[in-house]
Please model this.
Amino acid sequence: MPKNSVKAIIFDLGNVVIDFDHNIAARKICGFTKTSPSQIYQLFFDSGITELFEEGNIAPREFFLKIKELLSLSIDYELFLPIWNEIFFFTQRNRQVVELAVCLRNSYRLGLLSNINVLHYEYIKNNFPVFEAFHHVMTSFELGKRKPHPVIYQKALEILGVDASQVYYTDDRPELIAAARAMGICGSVFTDTATLKNELINNGIMVS
Model:
């Protein structure tokens, strides 16, 4: 990437800006169903129902009712909510990423791009002060597609007002970085803040 060509930087949310563990919810829900944690995990987080929810195609209560039926859950919506939401935690690594974002936001347009449902988004917004570091928080449930679909990346570019060649993107999932690169977006797989800083500097991005 040519020096000084970057105008915007896109960060992923989960396991970059804030950590999470879906198994926390899977283990808790076991007490209300005969289904195993591994089966619950697959249904919760790797299924067509979750895709619909993360793309904003079904409402929270409809999502809950589908999950309740599939797992034969003996639980109501109010009890389900904290189990579903309380999977996030803020680590020192996350803190370093947010501090880096705050340093970058005066010189670059900063975007947060996440595959996320509205319940998780509202929970994070209300409990973790991370969104304020970014100019734009762009979510799959609002944009109507999940990464790695090209549409979500294109919409992110439009929101940031930049071309693909003017963006640097970091995400913890290699396949999502690969999809972005296929569109001309430069990026790297996130492992830790020190490595990310080096990657940014190597691409002509000023890191104070």
